[in-house]
Automatic annotation (TrEMBL), chains A, B:
GO terms assigned for molecular function: metal ion binding; peptidase activity
Organism, as annotated: Neoroseomonas eburnea
Annotated Peptidase M20 dimerisation domain residues: 196-352
Keyword Cell membrane attributed: no
Source superkingdom: Bacteria
Gene3D superfamilies documented for this protein: 3.30.70.360, Zn peptidases
GO biological process assignments: proteolysis
NCBIfam families referenced in this protein's UniProt entry, alphabetically: PRK07907.1, PRK09104.1
Protein name: M20 family dipeptidase
InterPro entries: Cyt/Met_Dipeptidase, Peptidase_M20, Peptidase_M20_dimer
Length: 463, 463
């Protein structure tokens, strides 16, 4: 049955690609209110497709922010119910001037589709949607389905908990498959067994009540840019090791399984650094794979202060701003990590320098899929069949908040089964998705749903 | 004669105020090409007034950038020829949201006129223009006049040398009076005897060739914001002392005259810091007056990198930017100071971090009017008469590039005789100019021109 479905999907490849391009034309940037229309149009697009494809109970799940899109199929009594996760929001496209073709005009070049959201994660989300629709068309799905297509993944899922709590009926399932969380290698087959956590901190630093003339005050007043620079510089040592006291205290030590998995998927440093034109960097006690998947980070994603227009302005600025996010290793508590960084900044701010922190949510802990989980077994079987070798177990350096939140709220586990690859410039200009990944996904997803149809709901729930 | 002229000017006060408001409505921001129309309109406004007032040879002096406005009066043969300097350009008005009334809609509140450029320096410039016009109307000026109204003061006068070199005929004079360079105290009468120099440095820092996803690369790649912060933090020590090796090596030591003048004009620290809501700061070996008028500074006027829009973005930025200006103490060479900072930054940039410096001109050295100069004697006489006590000699912390450049190119000295006060929020939101200063200026300028009519051209030129 899954072979028939996979063949039908591959035969419909051009039609599915057209649909993906239409989806990518809709500018669904969740962080910026200017894109509200694009967000709405994207939700409507997905709901229309789910209804057309035979899903039931297609609707929006409101939680106070951007609603999620859901749809169900209940035709496999006694079989497991799988929640399928994807997200329809994308990162902002700036800096716009660095895009070769406009971010919301998808363009195919050299077997790749270039557009904001192509890789993260409209491509993989549509693979999942079309797979379920094709099963329904062919007579029925091997498992019961609940789609959960989120609209706030790129902003840290602020109302996800609220959506889950307000709609307990819509989200009853035995386990989850996520279309987000891509592949770790462009060459080796991999299966994802975990991800880093994430928490954020945004603040404004002030040294005076107004901007000053550098000729009138320069030499006798603190410059907000200098003070912010000093605080940011204090977060790391010269080797890039985090210098915030206590930040990593609750992290689980890297064990033999983690070290072994990381070693099985060595990073080709020449390719890794060559591809981004950067020099090697990071904690020398760990391999690059460990640095980018297991170690925590503190990154200043944005900072600004004073005059940033054309030319010069001899202003002595009273205010400067920073936006930070921290990636978290296994075991680290997001709220505690956030507090450690906040405390460090406050402790180092000299007299006369104030810091105002913006409310920026609680964050998400790291996630790990335990050894022997039926989700993991099913994914490994599928990858072994489609790639003709056993997959390497890989942790993702990014964060899939949904995995941790569904575990916490509903007690269910997640396997990530996305088809993005690690070099596709997500969150950056010229993001792309490989057309070969589209086809690979359309072959693998039917198999995965079939495999999970053989698992018992109880075993899935037991984890 | 000067009393008659002063009385006539004071009688015309309301008319002159109307004219000042019209001038302030013209948005003449020199640093931003978006204001080209406002710059042009301002030049036309000034040329029309000079022509109407009986000045001859009214025209634009081109030098490749924003042209200067000139006009002459030659009716006092044998008397000195004075160049009168002012500038018609203003600082950018941002941050716009902090203005109580719009920056280019001048508004009178509590005896003050609020507008961008009111204090710096359209108010004082118009006082000079109207004084000369009133003398001409009354039968003639005690000295010959050349107006030189610049359009690039707020961007460091990049084409001033070129204007002077291209128009040697228009700028022949024995000395210069500058309407720019205001008063040092809101209570004590002062006369200005010098100013700090200024030089600029702007650069872009890069750690990679493209922005990266912090989940995919975080922990193994240098973040441009962190690197920029580290470099900026290295410019000063904890007390705000400059930490750039060799930066101050060529500075003239602070002598007994400088120390005495600084001590005669002590800064009221409670008022100084209270007025800007800041805590005391700066090199503890010097008084606040010395810090803000004699010591050099390095200020980061603007810095930015990564995502600075609404919400969060988990980008790991490859690029960050900084705009610096340095105030210079007496004796310091601007090009050398600039090179010292550039070398310091380059020496501290680690492998894999590149810095690209933007061309930002040569800068201006500090200026000092020597003891016993006839310009100084004339100004002291006028202030003694109008304020009934001898003025305190004050150095300006700001920079009047014109004084150094006219000395260098034409060998003439400058007295600054502006009526701005030090608390008028120049270069900041809600800039204002006191209406009382307008009247005071209209009384003092006629006296100054009369006094200088008694000086010999040779004595003025001899300095």
């Amino acid at each position: 049955m899954s072979d028939v479905v996979a063949a039908a999907l591959v035969a419909r490849r051009d039609e599915i690609l057209e649909r993906l391009m239409a989806l990518l034309r809709l500018p669904s940037v969740s962080t910026d209110p200017a894109y509200a229309e694009g967000m709405k149009a994207t939700r409507e697009f997905l709901m229309a497709r789910l209804k057309e494809g035979g899903l039931e109970d297609v609707r929006l799940l409101e939680g106070g922010g951007q609603p999620a899109v859901t749809g169900a199929w209940n035709g496999a009594p006694g079989k497991p119910t799988l929640i399928i996760y994807g997200h329809y929001d994308v990162q902002p496209p700036d800096p716009l001037e660095l895009w070769k073709t406009p971010p919301f005009e998808p363009t195919i070049r050299d077997g790749r589709i270039y557009a904001r959201g192509a890789s993260d994660v409209k491509g993989s989300t549509l693979i999942a949607v079309e797979t379920v629709i094709e099963f329904i068309r062919a007579g029925g799905c091997p498992v019961n389905i609940r789609f959960f297509l989120e609209g706030e993944e790129e902003i840290g899922s602020p109302s996800l908990r609220s959506i889950i709590d307000r709609h307990p009926d819509a989200l009853v399932g035995d386990a989850m498959i996520s279309a987000d969380g891509g592949r770790a290698s462009t060459t080796l087959p991999t299966v994802s067994v975990g991800s880093r956590g994430l928490t954020a901190l945004r603040f404004t630093l002030r040294t005076a009540s107004k901007d000053m003339h550098s000729g009138r005050y320069g030499g006798a007043v603190r410059n907000a840019n200098h003070e912010l620079a000093r605080l940011i510089a204090s977060l790391h040592d010269e080797d890039g090791r985090i210098a915030v006291p206590g930040f990593m205290d609750d992290m689980a030590p890297i064990g033999p399984r983690e070290a072994e998995d990381a070693a099985a998927l060595p990073v080709d440093e020449a390719e890794f650094y060559g591809g981004i034109g950067a020099a090697p960097y990071g904690d020398p006690r760990y391999s690059v794979r460990e640095r980018i998947t297991l170690l925590p980070t503190i990154e200043v994603n944005g900072m600004w202060g004073g005059y940033i227009g054309a030319g010069s302005k001899t202003v002595l600025p009273c205010e400067a701003h920073a936006k930070l996010t921290m990636r978290l290793g296994p075991g680290m508590d997001p709220v505690r990590a956030q507090a450690r960084v906040r405390d460090h900044l406050l402790a180092r701010a000299p007299k006369g320098v104030t810091l105002d922190f913006e409310e920026s949510g609680n964050g998400t802990p790291a996630f790990t899929l335990r050894e022997g989980h039926p989700l993991l077994a099913a994914a490994e079987t599928v990858i072994r069949r489609t790639r003709n070798r056993a997959p390497v177990r890989a942790r993702a350096g990014g964060t899939i908040p949904i995995t941790a939140i569904f575990k916490e709220r509903l007690g269910i586990d997640t396997i990530t089964f996305g088809f993005a690859m690690p070099d596709e410039d997500v969150h950056a200009p010229n993001e792309f998705f490989r057309l070969s990944s589209l086809e690979e996904g359309l072959r693998a997803w039917p198999l995965l749903l079939s495999e999970l149809g053989n698992a018992s709901p109880e075993a899935l729930r037991a984890g």
